[in-house]
Design goal:
Largest sheet: none
CATH topology of the largest domain: Hydantoin permease
Structural class: mainly alpha
Subcellular location: Cell membrane
Distance between the termini: 43 Å
Helix content: over 70%
Number of strands: 0
CATH architecture of the largest domain: Orthogonal Bundle
Membrane topology: Multi-pass membrane protein
Number of helices: 20
CATH superfamily of the largest domain: Hydantoin permease
Radius of gyration: 22 Å
Number of domains: 2
Keywords: Amino-acid transport, Cell membrane, Membrane, Transmembrane, Transmembrane helix, Transport
Organism: Lysinibacillus macroides
Protein name: Branched-chain amino acid transport system carrier protein
């Protein structure tokens, strides 16, 4: 018993670090929108959301931990070329192209803009100033990643949890109203819609790359034994999963009971901002601002650090600090296009790469059962890509009628889950071929 308590005490900070790295812009703005739009069907919708927002990221953490904390080593099981290409795309997606700029944009639009006069909030200058100050702080915190556990896990996260607890507690004790009616796909397929909406958090992608940050933090703490590193990372994943579940359920509850008090909205940021004001009055805006800023700072630091570490490893002649500076400047520029544009641009990419990440992660966990057969990975990922690619193209308003008519026969295609059955069939065929073909062809 003492050993268990000692293990928890020693590694809780790492778990809080991982939770803080996950808890960022998307984790704050998407659950309230789901809660409001799902209405009476919130239970099924939230179960679907928790699978992609909590369950699969936890499995991804386990998969990456067993692979040595490196996504590229995991992706290399398909092929070395795929390993570099896929890993680079994932890092850039949750890095300077989408996720890092989203933290800056959300920090402004929810944390700063509500405190400004309306005319000033809609002007370009405050966003530019806020983004420059925000990313200057992020750059400073990222220069020394060895202090991440102290700076993020031990300081920012407890404060962040306290603020969210205040908002959530008030929403449960004094709900703003009754749930409204479900809208859109939440009417007919709440579970599937919640599942797909979980993509927007980017938590599975984040889990695949945070492994390297956690591994480095453990090494800096003197943990060098691989088995202990894996056990600690899994424990950290459980802590993060519990924390995320609490946050998602709480924020969705706020959105679910908000419609009669604040009306409907297509922006989860507006929902949580207005709800905070209803729940706490003028103090609500200050509480929300603190929540958003703390969440976005911790996530941006983790993502920027992970990206710089990966690309420095890929291109060792370019220093870690140089990548930090370049990615920070790029993220600052992208932030100023606005939150709506960033989300709209990210969705097609996520529809393409998220299914690939899920299939890769699930296969890696079952790797021992087919002894790492390359053909299993290849035949599972090819049909997954062929379906998910069109989901992304369709989101970009690029439609191929003949191809879509072919894909429509797939189960769950209308729910953007048409890739699921082809992935399963492909993996099964790959397993059969792995057993039948000479191992020199596929290893």
């Amino acid at each position: 018993m003492k050993n268990i308590l000692h293990f928890i005490k020693d590694n809780l900070a790492v778990g809080l670090l991982l939770f803080a790295l996950f808890l960022g812009a998307g984790n704050i703005i998407f659950p309230p929108l789901l809660g409001q739009q799902a209405g009476d069907n919130i239970t099924l919708a939230m179960i679907g959301f928790l699978i992609t927002g909590v369950g699969l990221p936890l499995l991804a953490i386990v998969a990456v931990a067993k692979a040595g904390g490196d996504l590229q080593l995991l992706a290399n099981r398909v092929s070395p070329a795929f390993g570099v290409l896929f890993t680079s795309i994932v890092y850039l997606a949750i890095g300077p192209f989408f996720a890092i700029p989203r933290t800056g944009s959300v920090s402004y639009e929810i944390g700063i803009a509500p405190l400004l006069p309306e005319a000033m909030a809609n002007h370009w200058a405050p966003l530019l100033i806020t983004s420059v100050v925000f990313f200057a702080l992020i750059l400073y915190l990222s220069f020394n990643p060895s202090k991440l556990v102290d700076r993020v896990g031990k300081i920012l996260t407890p404060v962040l949890l306290l603020i969210i607890l205040l908002l959530a507690g008030k929403s449960f004790i004094s709900p703003m109203g009754e749930p409204g009616e479900a809208v859109g796909k939440y009417i007919t397929a709440p579970f599937a819609e919640g599942f797909v909406q979980g993509y927007l958090t980017m938590d599975v992608l984040a889990a695949l790359v945070f492994g390297i940050v956690i591994l480095q933090a453990l090494r800096n703490m003197g943990v060098t034994d691989k088995k202990k590193q894996v056990n600690t990372t899994i424990f950290a994943g459980v802590v993060a999963a519990l924390g995320l579940s609490f946050v998602y359920i709480s924020l969705s509850q706020i959105g679910n009971t908000s419609i009669h008090a604040i009306g409907t909205s297509e922006n989860g940021g507006n929902i949580i901002a207005k709800s905070a004001e209803v729940l706490f009055g003028s103090l609500g805006s200050l509480i929300l601002s603190a929540t958003i800023l703390l969440a976005c700072i911790s996530t941006a630091v983790g993502l920027l650090t992970a990206n710089a570490q990966y690309f420095h490893k890929l291109f060792p002649k370019i220093s870690y600090k140089s990548f930090l500076i370049v990615f920070t400047i790029f993220s600052t520029a992208i932030t100023n296009v606005g939150l709506s544009t960033i989300i709209s641009a990210s969705l097609p990419v996520l529809l393409i790469i998220y299914p690939l990440a899920i299939v890769l992660m699930v296969l890696s966990l079952a790797d021992q059962f087919f002894k790492g057969g390359q053909i299993v990975y290849i035949l599972a990922l090819i049909p997954t890509f062929l379906v998910s690619l069109y989901d992304g193209l369709k989101e970009m308003k690029i439609e191929l009628v003949a191809y879509e008519n072919l894909l429509k026969i797939l189960p769950l295609y209308e729910q953007s889950l048409g890739w699921l059955l082809p992935a399963i069939i492909g993996a099964f065929l790959g397993f059969i071929l792995h057993l039948l073909l000479p191992k020199k062809h596929f290893t």
